[in-house]
Amino acid sequence: MSVTAVSQRLSDLGEGPHWDVSTQKLYYVDAFVGDVCRLDPATGVTEAVHLDGIVTFVIPYKSDPSKLLITLTRQIRKLDFETGQSEVLSELPAEPSTARFNDGKCDSNGRAWTGTLVPGEDEKGHLYRIDPEYALTRVSDKFTLSNGIAWSLDNRTMYFIDSEARKIYYFDYNIQDGTASNKQILIDYSERREFDSLGVPDGMTIDIEGKLWVAHFGGACVLRIDPETRCVLRKIDMPCTNVTSCCFGGPHFDILYVTTAQKAGVTDQPQAGAVFAVTGLGTRGQPPNNFIL
């Protein structure tokens, strides 16, 4: 196994990686800088489109991967990466005015999901499904920092992270109508000492064996977790503290791309903020789910 920095760019807060099969490049965001990024891992070069706001996820449209579904603070937008032009599709309800979007992902039918947070307030975030005409349907409540999303291989379970609560939840999922119900706790980090020094769970993905790969902000690692036994199967140590998210990519989906963030005042982590490629894991992921609308 090897862990290698593959981006020349160092992001302030790299997040939301999504592998683009059509170009063999990696989309991700530099959230608070307001950049939607596209990395060519072969060259290390990152192209970027700058927007005036906080961008937290990027998902290509299935019909045209150069068109991207993104969030910009409180708005859902469609971005043309080649021209840099974007259009507003929908927006969060007016109250509370400080709420904003965070992470997001699509299920295997191309149906998009996203979560929110209200900075400085506990349990004011929600989980939303993005329906036709880009309507937002609120599905679940009482999250503090909505984050990583993944689905089981049989599409019967949806996993969801609340970073500030240090919990991974799971829902019963109906792939036909996109309903998530019966929210339960998969792992409560505060109840297990093995997680004491691992910061908070952030973004995540799932492999072809149904195991979760969870990035740990403040924990300098990615964990492979078995959702059936709730046991940690493997720990991948990373060369910087703030590990934000991960996804599988490459021609065979056997490279784990990991986004990271810089940390103010830290000088002994020169690669903090880079995108890393983890190879030789002995497993792989599946093709990513693009947005269907």
Automatic annotation (TrEMBL):
Keyword hit for Membrane: no
Coiled coil: none
Gene3D superfamilies per the UniProt record, alphabetical: TolB, C-terminal domain
Subcellular localization(s) per the UniProt record: Cytoplasm
Catalysis: reaction(s): D-glucono-1,5-lactone + H2O = D-gluconate + H(+)
UniProt keyword annotations, A-Z: Calcium, Cytoplasm, Hydrolase, Metal-binding, Zinc
Catalytic residues of the enzyme: 202 (proton donor/acceptor)
InterPro entries assigned to the protein according to its UniProt record, in alphabetical order: 6-blade_b-propeller_TolB-like (IPR011042), Regucalcin (IPR008367), SGL (IPR013658), SMP-30 (IPR005511)
Binding annotation for substrate: 100, 102
Binding locations of a divalent metal cation: 15, 147, 202
Pfam families found in the cross-reference section: SGL
Family: Belongs to the SMP-30/CGR1 family.
Name of the protein: Regucalcin
Organism of this sequence: Larinioides sclopetarius
